[in-house]
Write a structure and sequence with these properties.
With 125 residues, the protein is of the alpha+beta class. It has a single domain, classed as Winged helix-like DNA-binding domain superfamily/Winged helix DNA-binding domain (Arc Repressor Mutant, subunit A, Orthogonal Bundle), CATH 1.10.10. It has four helices and two strands; from the N terminus they run αααββα. It has a two-stranded antiparallel ribbon. The longest helix is centred in the last third of the chain and has 30 residues, at 95-124. The chain is flat and about 60 Å long. It holds the Pfam family RTP.
């Protein structure tokens, strides 16, 4: 994780989102609105609803970090018109490896956060 994403108490939302976005690119769920829909659906029952802007900022960070690149494709929609959709893929020269290093760093941070939360529950309930 970059210095700007280092955590103090619990992890930053951007790091959390980037983790999920990397996994979605691995699973070939590669366009932003699809990713947003999946995340909103999967976390709805937990009261977490990532917004459009945060998804795009996180994807932009991954592009700027040299992990992902964008490809614009025309996709037909219901009105028989074509809509431009931006898909994300790993950069061929080390993007996947950098993504796996990023995920390993986030895993370490997630484990630390889980320990903090478990301690808080144990100490107070």
């Amino acid at each position: 994780m970059s210095e700007r994403e280092s955590t103090g108490f619990l992890m930053k939302q951007r790091a959390f989102l980037k983790l999920y976005l990397i996994t979605m690119v691995e699973m070939k769920k590669g366009y932003a609105l699809q990713m947003l829909d999946i995340l909103q659906h999967d976390f709805k029952n937990l009261g977490y609803r990532p917004n459009h802007a945060e998804i795009y900022r996180s994807l932009d960070d991954l592009v700027e970090d040299g992990i992902l690149y964008r490809v614009k494709k025309l996709q037909p929609n219901m009105n028989s018109k074509h809509k431009e959709v931006v898909y994300y893929h790993f950069v061929s020269d080390g993007g996947y490896e950098a993504a796996m290093r990023y995920k390993a760093n986030v895993k370490t941070d997630l484990d630390r956060c889980i320990k903090i939360l478990r301690k808080a529950v144990a100490d107070n309930y």
